[in-house]
Design brief:
This protein is of the alpha+beta class. The chain has helices at residues 20-36, 44-47, 49-61, 86-92, 117-131, 146-153, and strands at residues 2-5, 8-14, 65-70, 73-81, 100-108, 136-142, 158-162, 168-174.
């Protein structure tokens, strides 16, 4: 899907195996920036990228990871999982129904931050989930990541903070 934002053309495609390094570079870029903000969100991409590559590759192979490019350059990525991961089951405390989608690893390269790309992608996620017959989108972030929590809470209500694997803010979008 192509879209324009501030006169610039972006394209969202389903990531392929050969896009793995592009996706990982975006995740490392985000983790590096987050480290400067004194949050541990995604620090494992900096400390042990090899051990976390398999999860990203599996998501690509399952058709759940998307890549956003501008003029052929990767600027964003996200994953939309139809089935809960072990992490999701731990965090949400239940096995998801067929009407739930899980959003993971939404990142925007710092060179494109502040342009509204994240909001466009969240709108795209909501629309796509509705079209796929989903009723709920679930996602989370580290509770201590004040910037990201503030960003999400401009759009969505905080469902709760859970203390599983540390403290995590949980968000649930109920679609109409």
């Amino acid at each position: 899907m192509r879209f324009k934002l501030d006169g610039e053309v972006y394209e969202i495609t389903q990531a392929k195996n050969e896009d793995l390094n592009k996706v990982l570079e975006l995740l490392v870029n985000a983790a590096s920036w987050l480290k400067t903000k004194r949050t541990k969100q995604w620090s494992y991409y900096l400390t042990d990228l090899d051990a976390n590559t398999e999860e990203v590759l599996r998501s690509i192979e399952n058709g759940a990871t998307y890549l956003v490019e501008k003029e052929g350059q990767p600027v964003s990525t996200l994953a939309l999982e139809n089935n809960p991961s072990e992490w999701d089951v731990d965090l949400w405390g239940e096995v998801a129904k067929d009407d739930v989608m899980y959003l993971h690893r939404l990142v925007v390269h710092r060179s494109h931050a502040g342009k509204g790309l994240g909001a466009v992608l969240l709108d795209w996620v909501e629309k796509g989930a509705q079209e796929a017959g989903k009723k709920i989108i679930r996602f989370d972030c580290i509770a201590s990541n004040e910037g990201l929590n503030h960003y999400y809470q401009k759009r969505y209500s905080l469902k709760e903070v859970t203390h599983i694997h540390g403290s995590h803010s949980k968000y649930e979008i109920v679609l109409q």
